[in-house]
Design brief:
It contains 27 helices and 17 strands. A hairpin with a 7-residue loop joins strand 15 and strand 16. It is globular, with a radius of gyration of 27 Å. It binds adenosine-5'-diphosphate (ADP) and zinc ion.
Length: about 600
Amino acid sequence: MSRDPLQILQSVFGYPEFRGQQSAVIDHILTRRDALVLMPTGGGKSLCYQVPALCLDGVTVVISPLIALMQNQVEALNQLGISAAALNSSHSPDEQRRVRDSLLDGSLKLLYVAPERLFANGFMDLLSSANIALFAIDEAHCVSQWGHDFRPEYLKLSVLHEHFPNVPRLALTATADDKTRKDIIERLNLHYGEIFKSGFDRPNISYHMVDKKNGFTQLVSFLRAGQEGNAGIVYCMSRKKVEETAEKLVKEGFDALPYHAGLPPDIRAANQSRFIRDEGIIVVATIAFGMGIDKPDVRFVAHLDLPKNLEAYYQETGRAGRDGLPATAWMTFGHQDIVRVRQLLGGGDSPEQQRIEYQKFSSMLTYCEALKCRRKILLEYFGETLEEDCGNCDNCLNPPEILDGTESAQLALSCIYRTGQLYGSGHIIDVLRGSDTDKVRNARHDTLPLYGQGKDLSRGEWQTLIRQLLSLDYIAADTEGYGSLSLNEKCRPLLKGEERFPIRKFKRGSKQEKSKKQEIVLSSQEETDLFNRLKALRLSLAKEQNIPPYVIFHDKTLLEMAQQKPSTLNALGDIHGIGESKKSKYGPVFLETINNP
Ligand code: ADP
Ligand code: ZN
């Protein structure tokens, strides 16, 4: 077999070229030096060790905390004709013995293990008798207490270096913040390694935010406008809401399943497996779902509730569109969300921790309220600058008309103040709009000079404005009692007229928003039919082997087949994602479908 990385990429994986930093990382590893790779979710981290594994003599040991993911990777590698295996407690003694044998006789190219396994009964000794080419430490941020997923077993990985001083180590993560990065280097003793940091942009994901009215109805409209038949994830904050939403989606005719940590393990496993092995399934989930799933054709990620910080949001939305085809991140967001999340922040932790959480949540809200390109804000948060507007977020696609909301904001602030900072937004809006309610009359708020001064704005417009004041910390909402609004120090300059308050012009009615074509487009009905037949063939082949369809071919490969209609095996081999092994294994049946309409 060739030892040239590019040749391996083309002949084994069927991809024409390396992406971003892959090539540089691989060259570095082949000189047997350590490295830390920071790449966004979907950036292509796995190839950074899979290609060297095939170039180097010996076995590459991949340490990963995610058993489901290991299994998927092993299946995918086996499909490529690569000898790979995972060792975990779910395997029978027989299977474990087979893996050990292939490890020792040198036929195994990649071995996936969980960190706890690495240090269990004599495993290190076993490794010492094998010829180890490389250690790949996936999800390396698990070694850091600063990261969001600390795993104590990861701390022990520093001994790899002591036991195997000549074996290079490649640590990989999608978490990019400075503290975590320093921690990884420190704890894994990677001081002499190189750091490869890729851009964190995911240009194929389109970001959209809508004002929350009835979140569920809005979700359904979003799904009906171009997402039908697509696989996606809907995130909700509570288990109860997960179950309700999944049920309601099923009633609306969608193939939706719930997923949260409170469901029995067998149901959770079954739902996850259907999401991976069937097509077009929607999973409604709490954040417990998604880690360790590398399904490439997730077409949308929808949030019905607000995440606590941009790290979580970007990680969750990053699960969309790993295959590089168009995908959408969509979220509804309202006043109540802000109050609810603030309630949850920092419970029981140190004041310092609490301050950090508040700060992170503020950045999340700034993103939500943004009037400019959202991707610019996201990337800025992760330390990158985007020169031009992205052209693929709601603010770029439908630039908001910006009004001067200073006077309205001042009026709202005065109203909160004059009514004693004791009332929630409903009552404040009643007073502003001059509504005649019992509460208004009992409190004699109809006698205030500003009563009815805000009639020119609708309820919805006032709600949005108050939400903005809340998001941007001009006011606070009491999180314990009735959501009474009160003024924050920050509102002083605004009240004095030393600061302006720009707002987005409110859209009345439900005019269809412009959006980039998010569907996969083929140029003729004939091509679309062929694409669907190829998908059906892929699904039946996958079911026969009990593997996910995308492990056979990605959508992108089927799209190219439908467009190019190759008539020979050679021509088929030129298509994206078809290497030697898949060409001989699946080429003939796919050719038959293409050439016999
Ligand atoms: P990560 O682990 O960084 O989230 P993966 O390694 O799962 O990302 O890669 C994401 C997707 O991109 C995979 O489906 C993979 O097959 C594909 N991919 C990676 N590198 C390339 C490449 N050079 N050319 C084409 N596709 C690639
Ligand atoms: Zn943009």
